[in-house]
Amino acid sequence: MGFITGIGWVNPTSIGCGRDHDRFEWKAGKLPEIQRKAVFEKPFPHFGRLDRFCRLGLAAIAFALKDAGLDRWEQKRPIGIVASTVYGCLETDISYFDTVLSEKGRLASPNLFAYTLPNSYLGEAAIYFGLTGPSYMISQPERSELWCIRLSLSAMAEGQFDTVLSGVGDHNIPAPYKDSRGTACGALFFVIQNSVTKNRTAYGKLRLQQDGRLTFDGCEIKNLAMLARQCVAAMVRQKETLRRGRGYSVLKSYENGPDAERRSEQNFNQTAV
Question: In CATH, what number does 2-89+118-237 get?
Fold first, then answer.
């Protein structure tokens, strides 16, 4: 079991943190150009050299950490990363081999070569945000599958980490693999923690049931987009409750795990979004 405390995404429909939106949509279309200043407050010296796949995943991770209040740090943290992808960095791989073939390897691009592994952006995120936990990259046949979340919760139960970034990322489908389905591209990441501090409101509880089903606040989740929609809708309801200044018995404030759930007026006042 874990608590979702942050969401970040980049897709053709929108870009940013979960708490800054009142709905989540993920439709097919053209991805926006990702600018460093739109994502990072501090300088990122070689951001301009990153390939598009790295920028995409890194931006979604940055937004998720910011949404969870974990983007700033002074000491390194044992936060893990579990990501999944369908096409990975194949677009960059093709571009790199184009430079290899053109002059029989004499002009192969060293900059492109640095990003010919799909987990490259996990290392970039770990360096920039001081993350020292284990990281995994999963190759999966469909972008909507939930393997990243399942592995994250299983590894958390094993004690590999207390906080994990879990999500998916895919840039535009490379030309040789274009299909007619209009598959949506983009990146979506969740911050999952095994407990929540007093000054942060969780989106809700995530559970991996014994029969393999994944549930969010008791509702079965079929894919990542559905999970994001449920989370954003839950936060919108919590914000509305706060604005009304009443209904603290409805607002779910998760503090230090399920055994310490409280629904008192005192905790209601402590859980400002």
Answer: 3.40.47.10
